[in-house]
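Fresh eyes needed here. Have a critical look at this protein's tokenised backbone.
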Amino acid sequence: DTIDIINQVKFEQIFNFKYSPRPETEALNMQNQISDDISSKRLSDVIELHKQHQVEHMDRYLDSTMDVFFEDLKPNGEIMGFSDNYCQVFVKGSEELLGKIVDVKITKSFRTSLRGEVVNEMFLSEGFYLVEESRSLDSLGRGIEWRSGVFRKIV
């Protein structure tokens, strides 16, 4: 059943809705319709289970270092970006980090985001960033690839 599948897979994201009858569908005329109360309870159970899995997922990143592409300066003095696996990460920072990929040590996890500290700020020039390891960040979807010890923008 649905709960077993959610426990086995532990999805990072789910989009869930309770059943509601739709005109001109076979389901509308089926016998033994589930009551709205039962549908609401089942949806609530799924949502709560998924919240637990989200916490477990984010907790895995505590004390790790992640490459984060920063794209949004917040009014509270924090800057927000995304890791290469699309975790939302916040650090104290300024606009100089915008558009940069920076190593961030993760110090705190929340259900839907991470908080950390910048570990390395060695920027070469606009649009380039020096890294110490060889890795691909194609999954960022930002047009960045590894070349000779630097990330360079693909034109």
Remarks:
- The longest helix spans residues 36-59.
- Residues 123-155 have pLDDT under 50 and may be disordered.
- The helical segments are 2-9, 36-59.
